[in-house]
Amino acid sequence: MNEHNDDELLLVEKHTNYIKDLFRKPVYLEHWMADHLKMNALYWGICALFLMHQEDAFKKEDVVSFIIKCYDNKYGGFGSAPRHEAHILSTLSALQVLKLYDSLDALSKEQKDKTISFIKSLQLSDGSFEGDRFGEVDTRFVYTAIQSLAILEELDKSIVDPAVDFILKCQNFDGCFGMVPGAESHAAQAFTCLGTLAICNSLNKIKNPEALEWWLSDRQTASGGLNGRPEKLPDVCYSWWVLSCLSILKKLDYIDAESLVKFILRAQNSETGGIADRPGNECDVYHTFFGMAGLSLMKKGDLLLIDPIYGLPTNVTKTIKKYPY
Amino acid sequence: MAENNTTGTFLDGYRTEAGIQRLHGTKRFKKTDEKSRIIRRNKEAARIANYRKLQDTVFTGYEKNLYNNETFKFTTKLLNWNPELYTVWNYRRDILINSKFPGMNIDQKHNFLEQELRFVLVQLKSFPKCYWIWNHRKWCLKEDLRADYDLEMNLINMFFQVDERNFHAWGYRMFIADCIKDSKQTEEDRMNLYQKEFVFTTRMIKRNISNYSAWHRRSVLVDLLINTNAKLPKIIDDPKQELYRNAFNQKDKAEFLRLEYEVFLNAIYTDPDNSSVWIYGKWLFSDSFYDDMDFNFGNSFLDQAYGAVNELAELEREDMTGKENQWCIKFNLYLLKFKFVRYRKCGDINKYPEFLKSKFAELKKKLIKIDNMRKQRYLDFSLESA
């Protein structure tokens, strides 16, 4: 067993090396086959480094020039890797990382304008957003589009009002939110919906907040870890999806932080670095970041404070102009 | 050359065994030494070269807008290898729109899309949680004017055999139901579809009462069926369903509650620790049903539920040698508050019985003790809180 026995320690150095290693030259086939997630992984990895005060682990110029290589000339916006088509998920990740390095100006005026029109073109008449030109609709895309426009400071009433109306339609009988109206509640969707409402200054429009708060706090299981839906196993990533919501609702104390912190720390791999979905499982950068983000919200482990609305450090989000302008 | 000395361009890819986003629940790998890493790399070298060559061919075609049989086949080959490549799915649709569909009549297009659906199905069986594949299936069905929705419903049931809570399969079921709904001419036909879906949730809940996805779907359908003016026809020979049908047809919320209360009671007695049922039960005792219900009738119904849950709580205490079932207490705490809210709405708040107020305080205290993880939410929970 190489699980870490000291439940109190975040292995900053190990995790830093784990993330740095992740982005070197691909070795195995599975690394070559991961292009569709590269831009998201970049955000997860680099934001985790910033939280650990390791913002110099990568050269800013290297990261920025990689992102610019992922810009999609045809449609505007960013793909998940060079040559890939623009998608709203990778577009937000690209903008978040540029924002982390205070490098939005690396985009030319034309690239910026085309990115803005790409995002706006994805909004449908009911206020929802498609992920790209082929029509998949999901509250994930509403959130990613709205945050992208927030970073670019391009929100306006004609976009925000219908988006908010759509989000409100996604609230369910249990108080929580789903992917589209009528779809089952899920903690990650609670985040995309609450995050959107928060950016749009519309949190006061949530009906029955008490039911929502209870649903969210009931995600904590006896192990201390949080699950994403009733009767499912706990998973480190929900430390972010659930806690960010409770934090947005100012109810962070509705779960027991101490046992959750232990659950996350036990999921670290003390040899290779990285955090897994559950103690004893294999790590990945997704769970490494979301575990760390949860710790940051609970103010554990000397991490930068993360903003529960944007998933970026608060010292970065304070420079984003808040809607309504 | 040792791996640690490999200097690639920044972000060329990913190194070591580190992953980006694993399937949840992947057990930790065994530690590998340098020798076994070299063996693996050598073993994979040829496949990596093939993969990279194929990917380059496809992306070159994508960039040059090459839409023909050959490029179509390349996308099949690459997607078989890696279905997560969303750009390649987009390119495949570009090829279909620009080179395959033009000139096809409705039947030819239908026959062609049937093949495409078979291709997608094989992919879904291996990757039942991949968003891009489900999305492509939806796109195909929207393109096909002769799409066979019944076949899709059977397929979904097959997915539920493997995982009855697959989020994607439930979402897809909703999508197919909406497609069928849109193909119906009358409100009666549309609502009848929802009635069939309601019967489906009854079946799923009977199979496993802990299936929260089914309870959720049921809540959505009930909301539609109880509020429609359309008259539902008889669809199955089931006396229980006939009672539901009548309740829906009469828009009789009280009668629906009476029927559903039995289901709820049966479920909590079957598995008292299952949160799914308790959350659904809370909804049954909420404004969704009580808005226009007679004050006294509603209260007597609340009291009945309160009493039944209290009894269960006592049984549980006996079974578990003194240990409390927190769901029973949470539910009754909620009921006491809901009753208070009803008193407030009807203007005679002063008549809310004092002994219920002390009962409320007592249950709260108990929960703070036995569910200490969430103690703050109980401290905040009062009869007056919004």
From TrEMBL, chain A:
<protein>
    <recommendedName>
        <fullName>Geranylgeranyl transferase type-2 subunit beta</fullName>
        <ecNumber>2.5.1.60</ecNumber>
    </recommendedName>
</protein>
<dbReference type="GO" id="GO:0004663">
    <property type="term" value="F:Rab geranylgeranyltransferase activity"/>
</dbReference>
<dbReference type="GO" id="GO:0072657">
    <property type="term" value="P:protein localization to membrane"/>
</dbReference>
<comment type="similarity">
    <text>Belongs to the protein prenyltransferase subunit beta family.</text>
</comment>
<dbReference type="InterPro" id="IPR045089">
    <property type="entry name" value="PGGT1B-like"/>
</dbReference>
<comment type="subunit">
    <text>Heterodimer of an alpha and a beta subunit.</text>
</comment>
<dbReference type="InterPro" id="IPR001330">
    <property type="entry name" value="Prenyltrans"/>
</dbReference>
<dbReference type="InterPro" id="IPR026873">
    <property type="entry name" value="Ptb1"/>
</dbReference>
<dbReference type="GO" id="GO:0005968">
    <property type="term" value="C:Rab-protein geranylgeranyltransferase complex"/>
</dbReference>
<comment type="function">
    <text>Catalyzes the transfer of a geranylgeranyl moiety from geranylgeranyl diphosphate to both cysteines of proteins with the C-terminal sequence -XXCC, -XCXC and -CCXX.</text>
</comment>
<dbReference type="GO" id="GO:0046872">
    <property type="term" value="F:metal ion binding"/>
</dbReference>
<keyword id="KW-0479">Metal-binding</keyword>
<keyword id="KW-0808">Transferase</keyword>
<keyword id="KW-0862">Zinc</keyword>
<keyword id="KW-0637">Prenyltransferase</keyword>
<dbReference type="InterPro" id="IPR008930">
    <property type="entry name" value="Terpenoid_cyclase/PrenylTrfase"/>
</dbReference>
<feature type="domain" description="Prenyltransferase alpha-alpha toroid">
    <location>
        <begin position="10"/>
        <end position="311"/>
    </location>
</feature>
<dbReference type="Pfam" id="PF00432">
    <property type="entry name" value="Prenyltrans"/>
</dbReference>
<keyword id="KW-0677">Repeat</keyword>
From TrEMBL, chain B:
<dbReference type="InterPro" id="IPR002088">
    <property type="entry name" value="Prenyl_trans_a"/>
</dbReference>
<dbReference type="GO" id="GO:0097354">
    <property type="term" value="P:prenylation"/>
</dbReference>
<dbReference type="Pfam" id="PF01239">
    <property type="entry name" value="PPTA"/>
</dbReference>
<dbReference type="GO" id="GO:0005968">
    <property type="term" value="C:Rab-protein geranylgeranyltransferase complex"/>
</dbReference>
<comment type="similarity">
    <text>Belongs to the protein prenyltransferase subunit alpha family.</text>
</comment>
<comment type="function">
    <text>Catalyzes the transfer of a geranyl-geranyl moiety from geranyl-geranyl pyrophosphate to cysteines occuring in specific C-terminal amino acid sequences.</text>
</comment>
<keyword id="KW-0677">Repeat</keyword>
<protein>
    <recommendedName>
        <fullName>Geranylgeranyl transferase type-2 subunit alpha</fullName>
        <ecNumber>2.5.1.60</ecNumber>
    </recommendedName>
</protein>
<keyword id="KW-0808">Transferase</keyword>
<dbReference type="GO" id="GO:0004663">
    <property type="term" value="F:Rab geranylgeranyltransferase activity"/>
</dbReference>
<keyword id="KW-0637">Prenyltransferase</keyword>
